Amino acid sequence: MFHPLLMPTYGIAIALYTSYMRIFGDRLLGIIVTGVLLTTCVLPSLGIYILYKTGHISDVRLHNRTERTVPYIINFVCYVACYLYLYRFGIPSWILSFIAAALISLILALFINRYWKISAHMIAAGSMVTLVFLMSFYGLMLKPYILPLQLITLLLAGAIGSSRILLNRHTLGQVGAGFSLGVLCCVSMFYIFA
């Protein structure tokens, strides 16, 4: 439910449905969110499944960090497609910055994973928390959503990080580094784009 491939869809849905973008109506916003789901979750998942079935990776969950390179490249290409898709819709730059942050974090995670395993779940969680707080601080989020979404994203990030540690998928350092990288990329891209 909180897989890194789903987080861009959640983030774009939050950005569209809790901001002034709501004026464009549910039908158009639903089309945009569906396109994001297809390009950042369905297509990368299909790519990973094909890699698994053809024997290029041993596990669809990508537990072996040395097998993450090709799936990360597939994700990168799909995220570029998502960025172009949103750009063609005329989506504001502050929302595009969220996808740009995902692209930058993918590149950095790909490099880091060659030497050390970093938590992709926490990169996504850090980006999500940062998106919500940036929207709140800059008046981009409608007031009724601010406090509930801040609390929910913080609690979910804590739960995701705790689960990664309890399941022995990552160490505390890998979880903390992933969250920090997500925050750093999201803040950087927000200020560059906005």
Helix and strand composition category:
mainly alpha
**Range of helix content:** over 70%
Oligomerization status of the protein chains: single chain
> Uncertain spans, ≥5 residues at pLDDT below 50?
none
Rounded to an integer in angstroms, the radius of gyration calculated over CA atoms is 16 Å
Q: Report the total helices.
A: 7
Q: Can you summarize the main beta sheet? A: none
Average per-residue pLDDT, rounded, comes to 94
SS strand fraction:
under 5%
Report the span from N to C terminus: 30 Å
What number of structural domains do the residues give?
A: 1
* H-E order: HHHHHHH
Structure, explained:
This is Phosphatidic acid phosphatase type 2/haloperoxidase domain-containing protein. Keywords: Membrane, Transmembrane, Transmembrane helix. With 194 residues, this protein is mainly alpha-helical. The protein has one domain. The longest helix has 29 residues.
